[in-house]
Structures are given as C-alpha cells and as structure tokens.
Amino acid sequence: MSIVEPASFLTLHYRLAGPQGDIINTFHEKPATLSLGSGTLSPALEQRLLGLGEGTRVVMEIPAGEAFGEHIADMQQWVARKLLSELGDPTEKYVAGDVVQFPTPDGLGSYAGTVLEVNAEGAVKFDFNHPLAGQPVTFEVELIGVL
Question: Which of 1, 118, 129, 144 has the fewest beta carbons under 10 Å from its own?
C-alpha cells in the first residue's frame, strides 16, 4: 500500500466544509488529482494527509483559523467601478456572494475576492480572505491513488 509523502501525486475525492456547508466537494463528480506542495491545498491540509495510506477515507475536524488562517479585517476592501471596468467587463453586474478573479500585479497568476456589497456609485466591497478563513473546517478525504 502506498503512503502519502511530501511531493506525492494524489488521486482523491475531498470535501471542504465550514459552518455554512460545503465549499468544495468532489465526491459526486470525477476525483481530483494534485501534487502535494503545488499549492492546491493549504499547507495545514497537506500536513494532515502525510502518512495516510491509499484507500483511506477519513473525516478531519480542523479548529477555526488553522486550515486557512485567521480572518483579517484589512483584507476587506472597496474597489472602484472604474478599476473593475478596466480589469474586466464594464457591463458586469456584481451581487453579494459572487466570487471574482483578479490578476496578480505580475500578470502571471490570479487571486479571488468575494463580493460583500455594492454601493450607489458602483464601487464593490470585496473580501479577499479565503472563504473559510477564521472558521472551523471539516476536511473529508478518500485517497484513491498515491504515487
């Protein structure tokens, strides 16, 4: 039986849930494939996979703030409509709960923000924290393959 080690390549089903329910759940679709250390999962989640054997199915309860860090109030910011129009579709309508992708300053990656509110001028308040930051997390895993 193969055991998860640093840099292992995994095929697995997993579910991440907070107090409001599932954020990600692959159990009803095709399994995920990932390489540990690639940044797909947070380091805290990857650490919990180390030493698990192929075929293992486990549910882990992770304390608030441990899986994705603490919620940082300063990561909630207003973004002017003008900037949003420059970065994307100028006719885009934003609604609370929408998740919007932004390019990194170097243009090589992206990061996400969740819409919290929209003001009368069209500016949008985003939360750039991970949706599960500062919350307890349920991490359910079924390891299908370990290379």
Answer: 1
Residue 104 has pLDDT above 90, yes or no: no
As a whole number, the mean pLDDT across the chain is 95
Task: Quote the CA–CA distance of 109 and 27 in Å, as a whole number.
Answer: 28
Q: How far apart are CA 143 and CA 66, in angstroms?
A: 22
- 82: tokens are 């003008």
| pLDDT value at residue 10 | 98
pLDDT of residue 68: 95
- Does 1 have pLDDT greater than 90? no
- Determine phi and psi for 38, rounding to 5 degrees: -85, -10
- CA angle at residue 123 from 98 to 110, to 5 degrees? 50
DSSP state of 3: B
User: Is the backbone of residue 123 left (phi > 0), alpha (psi -120 to 50) or beta?
Assistant: beta
Say if residue 118 is exposed, middle or buried (CB neighbours under 10 Å; 0-12, 13-18, 19+): middle
**Rounded CA gap, 141 and 5, in Å?**
16
Per DSSP, 53 falls in state: B
Q: What are the angstrom distances between the C-alpha of 6 and each of 3, 58, 67, 77, 96? A: 10, 19, 18, 36, 38
Q: How does pLDDT run across 23-43, given as a tens digit for each residue?
A: 999 999 999 999 999 989 999
